[in-house]
Design goal:
This protein has 121 residues and is an all-alpha fold. It contains five helices and no strands.
Length: 121
């Protein structure tokens, strides 16, 4: 198949956009099999936000532990409570993230698209 420079650039851009590694595979799926699918996973930003919040909690715990290990000769009950509360918050956030992923992402469709691409290489 002969294409101009501009057409080749467009093919390469589309190939990458749809997750293909070769132009030939993309062209076969698009032209012969009409099997090109692009899945934009909705809810990505909510997942990123939840992950970011979780990371903040982890950093807070790490800071508290460093402080305690460096300066405290005895750990007060308030400090222990604070550490346990922070750890509980992290576990809660992790569970929320798992639920959010299951609720927001259509992984079945994504997996089907990936399986189709991998089977054809």
């Amino acid at each position: 198949m002969w294409v101009s420079k501009e057409e080749r650039i467009l093919l390469e851009a589309k190939m990458k956009h749809y997750g293909y590694k070769t132009i030939a595979k993309y062209v076969r799926d698009a032209v012969i099999y009409e099997n090109v699918t692009y899945v934009d996973l909705k809810g990505k930003q909510e997942i990123y936000d939840a992950y970011s919040e979780n990371t903040k909690q982890i950093k807070a715990i790490a800071k508290e532990i460093r402080h305690i290990s460096k300066y405290a000769t005895q750990i007060s009950s308030d400090e222990i409570k604070s550490i346990y509360n922070s750890m509980g918050t992290i576990l809660k956030k992790q569970k929320e993230m798992i639920n959010l992923i299951e609720k927001k992402l259509d992984l079945e469709v994504y997996q089907k698209v990936q399986d189709n691409k991998n089977a054809s290489y």
